[in-house]
Structure formats: C-alpha cells, structure tokens
C-alpha cells in the first residue's frame, strides 16, 4: 500500500485541506532576524544621528546599558531593539507614518468585514472566490495524483450514494452553479474522513461510508463540509494570515522569543478561530441538512460514534476542532431550530416522497450512467 504523504497523515476528521495553519517555524523567524540585522545595523556612532542617539540613550540604558552594535547575543539584540524603539518614538516622521499606516490598516480592515452566511458572524475576508477556487483546484489535482489507483470509479455504488446525498444538499445551498465533483477514496490506513475543497471538489474516504448508519448521518458529514465551502472559510483563514504574521513579528521583536510568538499566534488566535469556524460549519450544516429533508437528530448519534472511536486528539484548547462532546452539546442546543426548518420545508408531502423515489431510481440508473446523477 502506498504511504500517505506527511501532510495528509496529519489530517484529522473533516476539512483538512481547508484548515491549513501558518508555519512560524524558528527558521522563519531566524531569517527575519538575520535580515533585520543585515539591513539595519544599529550603530549610533554616525554624526548624522547624534541627536537621535542622545534622545534614545535613556531607553538604551533601560534595556541593560549594553553597548552591542550587533545581534550576536540576545541581550545585545534586546538592547539594540530598545534603542531602535526609542529612536522611532521620538521621530516625528515615523510617528506620522505609523499613524497613517495604522489608520489605513484599520479602515481597510473595517471595509472588508462582512457577515458570514446563515450565522451572520462578522468576519474579515479579503480574498476573492476566484482565488479560493484556484487554490482548491491546485489541491484537487494534487489529491487525485496522490490517490491515483485508489479512487472508486464514478459508477461505484458508494460514489453514487455520496452523489445522491450531495445532490439534495446542493439544491438548498444556493451553490448549484459550482462545478461539483465527487470522489470516494479507498485507503484502509485513513480513518473516517471527508473534505470539500473550494470549487466544489468533494472527497470522502470509504471508511466514513462504513461508519455512517444511514444517509442522514452521511448528510451530517457532507453538509458540514459543504458549509465550509458556503462560508468560504478557506478565504477567511487566508485573509487573516498577514495580520497574524505582523502580530507574530511584533511579539518576537518585543520578547526576542520565536517560541512565545508561535504560542501566541497558535493558542490565542489560530486555534480559537479554527474551532469557531468548525462550530459554524456544524451550525450551517445542521440547518442545511434539515432544509434538504434529512433528519438532523441523526447528527447526535453520528458524533457519539466518532467519540467512541477514540481517535487520538489533543485537548480542546490545543485542537483546531471542537471536542466531540462540545459538538454534541452545541448540536443539541441548535436542534429545535433545525427541526423547525425541517418541518417548514414540507419534507413529508407528496412531492418529497416523489423526490425520494426519483433519487432511489437514480441510484440504479446511475450504475449504468453515473454522469446522469449531476
Ligand atoms: Zn470542518
């Protein structure tokens, strides 16, 4: 059996390609640090800077009165940093530039805040759907290449089953114009998992199809993934990265520790934001599957099964996903609204029975002509 790549081995349940995290590795910070020391040698012997030297001397002493002019040691670096900060604080032009830059950034941020669909959560997003689709297409071709020979043919019953459920979800998602593609991957080394890439590329591992007890539970999985696509969570994560980089760099400059900067970004920003988007996908997905006439109550036994699987996971505050217990509690809280939506969608009328009958017929028809499903 072909081994998975290191990246895909790290994938946890659901949406992994869309859950990429920034990498603020020590080498990343070291490269920035080296660049700064090369570009800004902090020597204050120049006569042109004598005034600045006098003004910043107090600050320079405050950081240990170290007279290093290079970053050869941590103390020297921090001392030079203190001098630099002091110099900048007293420089009018720098003050004006910082004010303009900060104000411009703030206005840019506010002008790109918009509500997420369904949940209404206000979030910053600056990427375009076109860019997100380009990234999704790139991942799509990579995944197809990686799993070459382990993708079920389009006329396989499992593929047809996934398409059947996706068809009903797509019909209520408002994304009928997306170029949807469905693939089922058979790889016993991968646990129950599924993902939807930007651009409507759906991947479901066969192990997930073995886990779900019925189409309602499969709809729980697929509606969650479709919700990520609807809410453009990939674009939202990408949009935040420049801010995270600036914050990480600032934290590193202040503390001199790349580890602290990494921990700050990871635990204070990245992971909470990821868990929030996962919960939002649960919420949107639950309402979506209800609108599509699937039983939202089946989401609870599904997540109970996931919990019993006991997949190795970090504690919730260290994870990019909510715990299964949190998900079950939240879904239970949202259930009345989901049931109300399902009731209002008139799922039990004659037309719905006809649709279900048509879907069942399409299953058999799809075995002969899978392309007719979509
Ligand atoms: Zn997810």
In short:
By secondary structure, the chain is mainly alpha-helical. The chain is elongated and about 70 Å long. The N terminus and C terminus are likely disordered.
Q: Give the strand order of the largest sheet, numbering strands 1, 2, ... along the chain.
A: 3-5-4
Low-confidence spans: pLDDT under 50, at least 5 residues? 1-24, 35-72, 363-374
Number of domains: 2
Percent of residues in helices: 55-70%
Shape: elongated
Radius of gyration, CA atoms, in whole angstroms: 26 Å
* Average pLDDT rating: 77
Cofactor: Zn(2+)
Keywords: Hydrolase, Membrane, Metal-binding, Metalloprotease, Protease, Transmembrane, Transmembrane helix, Zinc
Organism: Myxozyma melibiosi
Transmembrane segments: 94-111, 243-269
Textual characterization of the structure:
It is a single chain. By secondary structure, this protein is mainly alpha-helical. It folds into 2 domains: 255 residues, no CATH class; 72 residues, no CATH class. It is built from 14 helices and 5 strands. The strands form 2 sheets. The chain has a 3-stranded mixed β-sheet with strand order 3-5-4. Strand 1 and strand 2 form a beta hairpin. It starts with 5 loop residues before the first helix and ends in a 6-residue tail after the last helix. The N terminus and C terminus are likely disordered. Bound molecules: zinc ion.
